[in-house]
TrEMBL record:
<feature type="compositionally biased region" description="Basic residues">
    <location>
        <begin position="58"/>
        <end position="69"/>
    </location>
</feature>
<keyword id="KW-0238">DNA-binding</keyword>
<dbReference type="InterPro" id="IPR001207">
    <property type="entry name" value="Transposase_mutator"/>
</dbReference>
<feature type="region of interest" description="Disordered">
    <location>
        <begin position="50"/>
        <end position="90"/>
    </location>
</feature>
<dbReference type="GO" id="GO:0006313">
    <property type="term" value="P:DNA transposition"/>
</dbReference>
<protein>
    <recommendedName>
        <fullName>Mutator family transposase</fullName>
    </recommendedName>
</protein>
<keyword id="KW-0233">DNA recombination</keyword>
<comment type="similarity">
    <text>Belongs to the transposase mutator family.</text>
</comment>
<dbReference type="Pfam" id="PF00872">
    <property type="entry name" value="Transposase_mut"/>
</dbReference>
<dbReference type="GO" id="GO:0004803">
    <property type="term" value="F:transposase activity"/>
</dbReference>
<dbReference type="GO" id="GO:0003677">
    <property type="term" value="F:DNA binding"/>
</dbReference>
<keyword id="KW-0815">Transposition</keyword>
<keyword id="KW-0814">Transposable element</keyword>
<comment type="function">
    <text>Required for the transposition of the insertion element.</text>
</comment>
Amino acid sequence: MTKKEQTEFEKKVLEQFMSGKNLFGEGGAFAPMLKNVIEKALEAEMDGHLDEGERAKGNKRNGKGKKTLKSGFGTFDIDTPQDRQSSFEPELVKKRQTILADNLSEKIIGLYGLGMSYRDISSHLSIYS
């Protein structure tokens, strides 16, 4: 996140907070951040899944699917990576799972609040999932 983007983000958070608007739901300042972290973590899981053995079997990326997730903070859409043989089983947001665990949302936002980057949070989540 560039300095300008961070300043704009902080301005939006403060503006929504002072007006009493929901920071996490649709249109909330934290909704895009949560979406971005989850998508990057799923990409990291896909990278781990498509190791040399999988690639040798002819498996590779095959675009993205859409999924609507519900959390305690609202509903949002994410893009989920797919592979040709449909053998990818994500751990963070499992297939057919539509409700995001509330504690996961809080952890992501907490880690971001502590200054971790999207990449750091994604790698942290992929280690523990």
